[in-house]
Amino acid sequence: PSCRLAVIRPAVPAWLAAGGQPKAPGMVMQQCGVGLVRVRIDSGNLAFAAPPLIRSGPIEPEALAQIRKALALEPSDIVRHQWVDNGPGWCAVMLASAQQVLAVRPDWTVLDPLKLGVLGPQAPGHDAQFEVRAFTSGYEDPVTGSLNASLAQWLFCEGLAIRIALATSKTITQADSTVQELAGLSKHFMTEARIVNAIERDS
To answer: If you average pLDDT over every residue of the chain, what do you get?
Structure first.
């Protein structure tokens, strides 16, 4: 199970718009696939409490070799790697740059059954700090709250980020989507994301 933004976004805003009043100021409890999830209300923005990781630590050599083969990477291309599983089974690798992330073309047959997040830092001055792509079950997921939340926990734990103001996820084969974290990612809460631009590509 995973706590997806698509689950939280319609229910809580609709409940608030209908006059719902939180029992605790600034906090709502939402039923989700992982159970009850805290949703923080901050100046009109919503942020869900990231589910705790149920698996972390380095990716095993066999799985890492599978990932390199599926993405056609050299060992030196992966600068960091980690299990970031908060329910769905995510693992993640960090590449040296966002450009490398965007150049990846996965071999789905080789990657199966791994659910993989790939991220790389953007160049200084870019409006996003990291480029993020999610590969799962034979397709690329353009927006995945569960992966973004677990990546944030990894980055904060490793001291690689203090606050993430903006992350992007680009689906190369279908659309270009920019996902804005409205108030950024904190250590325990992930702000509600929304697609602010999506351009369908001509086939």
So the answer is: 75
